């Protein structure tokens, strides 16, 4: 049985991108990229919103990106080897292999997919993750908190609800960013 993991890179003040959609400050250095690669090893399925999916597509379609470094090539392999479901009302067909499109989020389907997955399931994109949080599906949150504040923009947790978390692990990277892993606590 897999776990549903919300994975995100964010600013210290809790944003994924600024008001203009800029997230250039979030590009990982080699150490953080290696950390991301380690986390990708156990992932068998990715659930993605359309915007995040379109950002990630070049890891499969642009051979120069993967050839840029050993760590990049490794990440590209993990990306290409995992199944993906993209939630979009506008994307007509997949842009990558091993990819299916769903028009809307179905909590029952995600619960079943997570339970039957041979590895963990990662959910990416805050709007999509908010739906999974609302339905009580998220088991774990993995964040890399970059050493920058941006003031406003797209929040990591676009929720109108409280989510209780328990810290499992923290890592301080050489450049000052933090890697944090939290277990989602159930209110019962």
TrEMBL record:
SUPFAM superfamilies noted in UniProt: Dihydrofolate reductase-like
Molecular functions (GO terms): 5-amino-6-(5-phosphoribosylamino)uracil reductase activity
Bacterial bifunctional deaminase-reductase C-terminal domain boundaries: 4-176
Cross-referenced InterPro entries: DHFR-like_dom_sf (IPR024072), RibDG_C (IPR002734), Riboflavin_Biosynth_HTPR (IPR050765)
Domain of life: Bacteria
Biological processes, Gene Ontology terms: riboflavin biosynthetic process
Name of the protein described by the UniProt record: Dihydrofolate reductase family protein
């Amino acid at each position: 049985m897999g776990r549903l993991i919300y994975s995100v890179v964010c600013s210290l003040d809790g944003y994924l991108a600024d008001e203009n959609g800029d997230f250039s400050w979030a590009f990982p250095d080699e150490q953080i990229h290696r950390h991301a690669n380690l986390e990708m090893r156990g992932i068998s399925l990715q659930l993605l919103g359309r915007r995040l999916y379109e950002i990630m597509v070049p890891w499969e379609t642009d051979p120069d990106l993967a050839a840029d470094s050993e760590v990049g090539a490794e990440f590209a392999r993990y990306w290409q080897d995992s199944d993906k479901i993209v939630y979009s009302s506008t994307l007509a067909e997949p842009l990558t292999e091993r990819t299916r499109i769903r028009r809307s989020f179905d909590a029952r389907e995600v619960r079943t997919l997570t339970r039957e997955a041979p590895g963990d399931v990662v959910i990416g994109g805050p709007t999509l993750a908010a739906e999974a949080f609302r339905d009580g599906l998220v088991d774990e949150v993995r964040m890399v908190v970059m050493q920058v504040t941006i003031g406003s923009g797209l929040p990591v947790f676009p929720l109108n609800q409280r989510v209780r978390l328990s810290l499992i692990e923290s890592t301080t990277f050489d450049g000052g960013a933090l890697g944090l892993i939290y277990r989602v606590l159930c209110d019962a």
